[in-house]
Every structure is written in C-alpha cells, then in structure tokens.
C-alpha cells in the first residue's frame, strides 16, 4: 500500500538486468564488440521509450533518477537561458527535488514564483498567467502530486506557454504520473519531462529526462562527454535496460489495468469514508490519480497508525516517503489547506497494478480495529 | 615504521593480589579492541608490562585509535624492540632510530635509560651519558636539555631492549571487567549512552535495557538504540541489550492512573523491570543518565520517587552535570549525532502537558494500587518476552 514510495521490480526487468551485469557488462563507449553489445541495450530501451512517448530517440537522456532529471532540467535550462530572463515559475506542492533546486537557483540570483493551489491541490491557470512576466524563462509543474494524487492541467498550461509571442520553456515532473497515464510531450507542448525507474516497477538509481530537440540546456555534470555532452558518466547499462523493459511491461493492457485501479480506489474510498472521523484529501474520482488516496484520521497521530498498520504487514506513508525522514509537516497538505489538527494525522495509501481487492479489504479491516484503540490513548 | 607498542597503565588501586586480574582484563580488552583492525597482533604481558606486537603489515592509525578506546590504558608508546647484541650495536640502533623518526634532528633531548636487567654491563647513568654523547657526535645540531627536552628518548633494558620517544595518552580508568557488571537504562537520548560510557570507564561491564513501545515508537527508534549500544560497546566491549516491549504496561497505566503521574509511574515500572532483568543477568547495579532538574521526571522529588522501587544501587554518573557538559562528552564518544535523530521514545509519547514535578511518594503509591489487578502478570510477561540483542 505504499507504491508511490517505490514499486517492486517486474520479474523480467530483474532478469534482464542480471543478464546485462553478468554476461554483457561492456562499456557502451568501448570500440570493441563488448561495447557494441552494451550499446545495443541502450538503443533498445530508447526505442521502447521513444515509441511510448512519441518522441525522437535523440531527445532522451538517462540519469540517476527523478531527482537528477529535475536538477538537470531546471539548473541546465536556467543557466542556458538566463540571457532571456531570470524568472522561473513553479507550484507550492512540487516534490523537494524541484522545490529545493528552485531554492538553490534563488540563491544564484534567479527569481522564483511559487503558485498556490486550490483545496484539491490544483493550480489555477489565470494565476499562472498573471505570474508570467517579460523575464519568465521556464515553468515547472508536476503532472500529478505524490502526496494527494491531484492532476494538473498540463495540456492547458502547455498551450498557454506556447501561444505567446515569446514562448516559455515547460518542464513537467512526471515521476508519479508516468506509467499511470499515456503522456505525449509533443502533444502537451512539454519541453522537458522527468521520469524515474523505480516508480514503474523498474530499478532504483535510473531515470530519464526528455529534452525537446530545440531546448537550450547546459550540463550540470562534467566528464567524458557521454550522451551528447549533456550527461557525462558511463551509462548505467543494466539500469537503462531495466527501465526500458519496465516501460514496455507497464504499458501492456494499460487501459484495463488503470480501469481496475480506479475501481479499487473507489471501493477503498467508500470503505474509508464509512469509518468514523475520516476525510479523503483531494479529488476522489477520475480527476485524480488512479493509485493515490490521502486520508486524514481525526484524533490519531499518523506515525502511530503507520506503525500499527506495519505491525499487521501493511505498509503506508505519512506525507510522502521522500519527506518522512524530515519530521516537518507536509507542505502539500498545508498548501491545500488541511486543518492544522489533521496535518499530523494524514496517511497516504498508494496502489500498483499488483494491488488486490483482498489487500484493500484487509487494510480496511485493520483500520476498523485500530482506530478506536488508538483514539483512546492520546497525548493530553 | 613501528611494529610494536608498549602499553602504560595506571598503578593506583591495582597493588597486591588484584594486579594480575587488572592486567588480564586489560590484555583481554586490548585483544578485543584489535579484533577488527587490519593486521595480526600478539598481546603479551611480561614483567609488569603489556606489549602489543604486530606481525607483518598492519593499519597503524586504526590500531592506535582502537587501543585509545580501551579503559585502563594511560599511554600507548610506539616502540622499537631490539635483541641485546652489545652496547655498540645499541648505539648504532639509537642513531638509526633518530634518523628515521626525527629526520632533521635539531631538537633538544634527553636520554632516559632504565636497566631492569641487572646483569647488563652498564648502569643506567652510564647508558644515559654514553648514548647522549653518541647522539651529540652524530647530530651536531642537537642539544642536551635535562629539564625540558623536546625529545625524551626512553631506553629500557630488559631481556630485550625497548626504544621509544612518544607517549600517546590513553583514556585512563580501569579495564572493563574488573568491577562487576551493571544494567544501563538506555533510552535513545543524549544522556544514557554517556552515563554508560562513564561507568564502564570505572571497569564496569555493561548490560543494557531499552523500553520499546510499538506502534508508538518505531523500528527506527529501536535501531537507533541498537546503534547507540554499538557506540558504547566500542569502549565497553560487547553489550547485551534487552529490548522490553512496554506498550501494554504503558497503556494500562494510562487507563488507570492520573495522567500527570503517568511519567513517574512509568519510570518506576521501568526501574522495577530493569532491576529484575539485572538480577537475572548477574548485574550488581543500575545505571541511568539522570541529571538533577533536567526534566520534570528528574527533579529531586521525582528521582526519590523513582529510586524508591529499587534495592540495587542506582549509578547516576551525570547527576550534577549540566547539559552542555554531557553534550561535550557525547560528541567526544561519537554518540551525539545518533542521539539527536528525531525518533520519538517511549517517555515522550504520552507525556502530560503539566506532569507533576514534586510527586508525593504516598500519592504515587496509592495510584499504583489501581494497577494491582494485572500489573504483576504484565511485568512478568514483559521480562519473559524481552528480546536479547548482542551488540559489538
């Protein structure tokens, strides 16, 4: 129940990666046959992913994961385009990989606007339009929020940014959305898009940045000049091969799987709302992600409930896993106006294509049993 | 490069028949400390000295650092060991030693010879004078200074001859194992590991007990305590850590007793349980990190109320320390960074807004009578189900 934190590797992905590591472990930059073999894996992965995104293979760059992709997109574009302006726009509910990179850029002399969101966690287009100025060079908006599952109007934002005299670069953090939505950057007018391997049943330590052909960007890592000088460092061949295989597999019978996830989610939400003192955050229907449910439990501390569920073999997150090692309260929940007394009482349940109805029933049963007990014992 | 160390240890309190106990414990502790260090070491005791000799290559820095954590050592001297092949040969070796370790040789110096082997043909004073003369001859820029020499060259004549000039200070204290065993109440905070370190320094072997309250305290909180026990074990040798599941007892107290007395009553049960486990494992005392007035449960009245349930002595080495001084030691022994990880421990989860600061023992005792129905069985169960983790 914590598949937004990470997912289990597909079996075929793990097997393919083992093969690459044990047998075909060449360096893709080598001139000899071993190098060519390794390069073939990268080419295969690129073929799968470019077809899936309907972009050119030349527009794909492999990184160490979502965080590096976001860093490269934001820092690389900010510096490469600073002569056109030094203003950037993002939202207040982005992942720390974007928010903290923006903070870094502010220290370097860039100006950043953080757009608020409504109580469902969605940005308002007119507010975005109002924030744009002569100096704006880039807008970064996540496709879907990792804590409450809200989906942003990406297509509308893309249109807004490109139907201007001086078009503005558009970066989308699609780490949570990829594998749950069919995403075509060109159609959505996205210039840069971040993807992570381990959120789509692929390996950890590998990610992707889509960079549109005409985008001006500078590297943030320097070295041997791999990946057309944009991302130096020997390619993570097993990781990249695994990422390609994961993309292929997660999009098999795609519509059917997503349909099933929505059905499970609806059932789960009904079960949750039938419990006393619960509130589901964000949109509940098809306007939100098929796999994320954020619930506030009145009168229960999320950390305690989390450990009580853990005791029953059910793993969930308080806030997002990436932020849980900082006990600070979730900025997303604050941004959507969750009441103060509920901020520390909110858990995130997140599904995958492997989640079963039985698991959800067991989880609801566990909650039914635990909530009254935990509410009895609280700090006075 | 040095291949051996001479270990100096304190003499106080180890006279007479106990001396060999002290020395054997020290040898055992040094062997244990060197276990993880790259290299093979022989630790031997001869003529009131302990020597550590490395066979072949070894990690010098790590060896010194590891021995530096052994209580009872006053000084670690990197030493060159020579066979006795006549005085002429010794003089040559001394010159080589100085060339190797003090390349420029521009220091003031003094030779300090000690003839333990009385059959050696020269007396200590003669050795001092003759070796000093040889050094002046060889290194014209060196000068003798018998009062404040920059370089003191020790020459010890025993069955073999030992040359050394550097004494790396040790921690002092007494070797662990020479003063019985005590049970440390380890909470995960800054104080208790420091208290354990300090008592271990007096030669006391340490067992530890941790009160775990799942789901109110997390696996990470428990891991943090294991990590802290491991840090203490770097000094105190292996630590047997008993993890007691305290949730039911805590909730039972919460249900039955006034909320503002919760912390005191809880701590009284912790002490009772710790003492029972301590008796089982052969401990003779309890150790806590308490310090007067630090929090509500550590006022003198609270300490008295907590103390009242134990018959064993409770060692509180930090009792009169300020927090800053405790922090200084915790940084020195490298427990601070681990201690400040923000996981909730069982003392804070139900803490009342205004806990009693001056508990009256009679009132507390009356409140505890409300627990009579189940508490003994719960305590028994907590002790029986305690998980043992051997750390270090």
Overview of the structural elements:
The complex is a heterodimer of chains A (380) and B (392). Chain A folds into 2 domains: 11-250, Aspartate Aminotransferase, domain 2; 254-376, Alpha-Beta Complex (Aspartate Aminotransferase, domain 1). Chain A has 13 helices and 11 strands. Chain A has helices at 11-22, 33-53, 66-80, 96-107, 125-131, 154-162, 185-188, 237-250, 254-274, 302-311, 331-335, 340-343, 357-376, and strands at residues 60-63, 87-91, 111-115, 136-142, 169-173, 192-196, 207-211, 278-281, 292-297, 317-318, 346-350. In chain A, helix 6 links the parallel strand 4 (136-142) and strand 5. In chain A, helix 1 (11-22) packs antiparallel against helix 8 and helix 9 packs parallel to helix 13. The model of chain A is unreliable at 320-325 (pLDDT under 50). Chain B has 2 domains: 4-169, VC0802-like (2-Layer Sandwich); 181-391, Rossmann fold, CATH 3.40.50. Chain B contains 13 helices and 15 strands. Chain B has helices at residues 19-34, 60-67, 87-101, 124-138, 191-200, 219-236, 247-256, 262-281, 300-307, 323-332, 336-339, 361-369, 375-384, and strands at residues 4-9, 40-46, 49-55, 73-83, 108-115, 143-144, 151-157, 160-164, 168-169, 181-185, 205-212, 239-245, 285-287, 314-315, 387-391. In chain B, strands 1, 2, 3, 4, 5, 6, 7, 8 and 9 form a 9-stranded mixed β-sheet that branches. In chain B, strands 14-13-10-11-12-15 form a 6-stranded mixed β-sheet, with helices on both faces. In chain B, strand 13, helix 9 (300-307) and strand 14 (314-315) form a beta-alpha-beta unit. The model of chain B has no long low-confidence stretch (mean pLDDT 91). The interface between A and B is medium-sized, with 14 and 16 residues.
CATH architecture of the largest domain in chain B: 3-Layer(aba) Sandwich
Order of helices and strands of chain A: HHEHEHEHEHEHEEHHEEHEHHEH
- What kind of oligomer do you see? heterodimer
Largest interface in this structure: A-B, 14 and 16 residues
Most strands sheet of chain A: 7 strands, mixed
- Give the number of domains of chain A: 2
Share of helical residues of chain B = 25-40%
Average pLDDT of chain A, to the nearest integer? Answer: 92
Strand content of chain B: 15-25%
Kindly provide the radius of gyration of chain A, computed on alpha-carbon positions and rounded to a whole number of angstroms.
21 Å
CATH architecture of the largest domain in chain A: 3-Layer(aba) Sandwich
Number of strands of chain B: 15
Spatial strand order of the main sheet of chain A: 1-7-6-5-4-2-3
Please give the radius of gyration of chain B in angstroms: 27 Å
CATH topology of the largest domain in chain B: Rossmann fold
Structural class, from secondary structure content of chain B?
alpha/beta
The general outline of chain B is elongated
């Amino acid at each position: 129940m914590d598949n937004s934190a990470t997912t289990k590797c597909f079996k075929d992905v793990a097997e393919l990666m083992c093969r690459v590591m044990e047998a075909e472990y060449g360096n893709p930059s080598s001139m000899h046959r071993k190098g060519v073999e390794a390069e073939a894996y990268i080419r295969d992965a690129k073929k799968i992913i470019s077809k899936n995104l309907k972009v050119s293979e030349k527009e794909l760059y492999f990184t160490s994961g979502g965080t590096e992709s976001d860093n490269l997109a934001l820092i690389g574009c900010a510096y490469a385009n600073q002569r056109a302006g030094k203003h950037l726009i993002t939202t207040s509910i982005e992942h720390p990989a974007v928010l903290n990179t923006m903070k870094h850029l502010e220290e370097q002399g860039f100006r950043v606007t953080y757009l608020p969101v409504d109580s469902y966690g969605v940005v308002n287009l007119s507010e975005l339009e109002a924030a744009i100025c002569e100096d704006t060079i880039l807008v970064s908006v996540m496709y879907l929020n990792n804590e409450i599952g809200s989906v942003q109007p990406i297509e509308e934002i893309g249109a807004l940014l490109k139907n201007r005299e001086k078009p503005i670069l558009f970066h989308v953090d699609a780490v949570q959305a990829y594998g749950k939505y069919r995403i075509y950057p060109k159609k959505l007018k996205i210039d840069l898009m971040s993807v992570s391997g381990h959120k789509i049943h692929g390996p950890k330590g590998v990610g992707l940045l889509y960079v549109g052909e005409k985008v001006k960007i500078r590297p943030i890592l320097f070295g041997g000049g791999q990946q057309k000088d944009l991302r130096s460092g020997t390619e993570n061949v097993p990781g990249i091969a695994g990422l390609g295989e994961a993309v292929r597999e997660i999009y098999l019978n795609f519509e059917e799987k997503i349909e099933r996830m929505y059905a499970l989610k609806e059932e789960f939400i009904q079960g949750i709302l039938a419990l006393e003192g619960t509130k589901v955050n964000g949109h509940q229907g098809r306007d939100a992600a098929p796999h994320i449910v954020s619930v506030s439990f009145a009168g229960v501390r999320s950390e305690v409930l989390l450990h009580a569920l853990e005791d029953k073999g059910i793993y969930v997150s308080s806030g997002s896993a990436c932020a849980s090692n900082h006990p600070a309260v979730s900025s997303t929940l604050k941004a959507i106006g969750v009441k103060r007394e509920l901020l520390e009482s909110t858990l995130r349940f997140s599904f995958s294509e492997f989640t079963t109805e039985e698991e959800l029933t067991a989880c609801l049963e566990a909650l039914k049993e635990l909530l009254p007990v935990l509410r009895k014992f609280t700090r006075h | 490069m040095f291949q051996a160390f001479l270990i100096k240890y304190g003499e106080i309190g180890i006279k007479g028949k106990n001396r060999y106990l002290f020395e054997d414990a020290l040898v055992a502790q040094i062997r244990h400390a060197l276990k993880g260090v790259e290299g093979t070491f022989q630790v031997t005791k001869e003529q009131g000295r302990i020597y550590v000799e490395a066979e072949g290559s070894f990690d010098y820095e790590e060896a010194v650092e590891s021995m530096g954590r052994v209580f009872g050592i006053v000084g670690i001297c990197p030493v060159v060991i020579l066979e006795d092949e006549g005085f002429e040969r010794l003089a040559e070796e001394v010159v080589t030693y100085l060339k190797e370790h003090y390349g420029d040789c521009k220091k003031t110096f003094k030779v300090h010879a000690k003839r333990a082997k009385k059959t050696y043909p020269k007396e200590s004073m003669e050795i001092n004078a003759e070796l000093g003369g040889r050094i002046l001859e060889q290194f014209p820029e060196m000068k003798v200074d018998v009062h404040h020499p920059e370089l003191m060259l020790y020459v010890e004549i025993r069955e073999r001859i030992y040359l050394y000039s550097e004494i790396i200070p040790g921690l002092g204290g007494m070797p662990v194992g020479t003063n019985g065993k005590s049970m440390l109440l380890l909470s995960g905070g800054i104080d208790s590991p420091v208290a354990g370190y300090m008592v271990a320094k007096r030669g006391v072997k340490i067992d530890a007990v941790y009160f775990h309250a799942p789901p109110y305290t997390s696996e990470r909180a428990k891991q943090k305590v294991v990590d802290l026990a491991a840090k203490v074990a770097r000094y105190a040798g292996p630590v047997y850590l008993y993890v007691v599941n305290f949730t039911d007892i805590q909730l039972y107290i919460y249900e039955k007793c006034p909320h503002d007395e919760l912390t005191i009553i809880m701590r009284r049960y912790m002490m009772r349980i710790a003492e029972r486990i301590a008796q089982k494992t052969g401990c003779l005392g309890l150790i806590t990190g308490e310090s007067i007035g630090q929090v509500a449960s550590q006022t003198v009245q609270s300490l008295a109320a907590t103390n009242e349930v134990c018959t064993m002595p409770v060692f509180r080495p930090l009792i009169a320390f300020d927090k800053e001084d405790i922090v200084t030691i915790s940084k020195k022994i490298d427990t601070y960074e681990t201690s400040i990880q923000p996981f909730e421990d069982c003392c804070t989860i139900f803490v009342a807004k205004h806990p009693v600061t001056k508990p009256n023992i009679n009132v507390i005792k009356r409140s505890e009578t409300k627990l009579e129905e189940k508490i003994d069985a719960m305590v028994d169960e907590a002790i029986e189900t305690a998980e043992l983790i051997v750390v270090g």
